[in-house]
Automatic annotation (TrEMBL):
Domain MsrB: 13-135
Family designation: Belongs to the MsrB Met sulfoxide reductase family.
Protein name (Swiss-Prot/TrEMBL): Peptide methionine sulfoxide reductase MsrB
InterPro entries xrefs: Met_Sox_Rdtase_MsrB, Met_Sox_Rdtase_MsrB_dom, Mss4-like_sf
UniProt superkingdom: Bacteria
Binding site for Zn(2+): 52, 55, 101, 104
Cofactor(s) of this protein: Zn(2+)
Active site: 124
Length: 135
């Protein structure tokens, strides 16, 4: 087991269900998606940090957030290269890149290669999967 695996947050389904709302559980633990234009933080404009709702790990900063028009909060870069993990998602007859919290494997959303400079990436997140702390 490497150092990152040793730090991973591991809980039972019952522990996650106790900690999270039913919608947070559905999105983060069952790989669900909130309906577009309905989740929290879509129109959030304050400066701050977006963190994982499950474990509290800092994921994205407000200075990387942009309005993609897709209906979910979008960012062009994570807070650091170790904050998220990428997985191939072959659900819904598509091949996409799923992103999860590197600490607890919470499903966050997907990343697409159609974002703005400087990265050209669009990290499309479920607001339900995050918390926000204003600077």
């Amino acid at each position: 087991m490497d150092e990152a695996e040793a730090r991973k947050v591991q809980k039972t389904d019952e522990e996650w269900r106790t900690q999270l709302t039913p919608e947070q559980y559905r999105v983060t633990r069952e790989h669900g998606t909130e309906r577009p234009f309905t989740g929290p933080f879509l129109n959030e404009k304050r400066h701050g940090t977006y963190s994982c709702v499950c474990c509290g790990r800092a994921l994205f900063r407000s200075d990387t957030k942009f309005d993609s028009g897709c209906g979910w909060p979008s960012y062009f870069a994570p807070i650091d290269e170790h904050a998220i993990a990428e997985y191939v998602d072959r659900s819904h007859f598509m091949v996409r890149t799923e992103i999860r919290c590197a600490n607890c494997d919470a499903h966050l959303g997907h990343v697409f290669p159609d974002g703005p400079p400087p990265t050209g990436l669009r990290f499309c997140l479920n607001g339900t999967a995050m918390t926000f702390a204003e600077d």
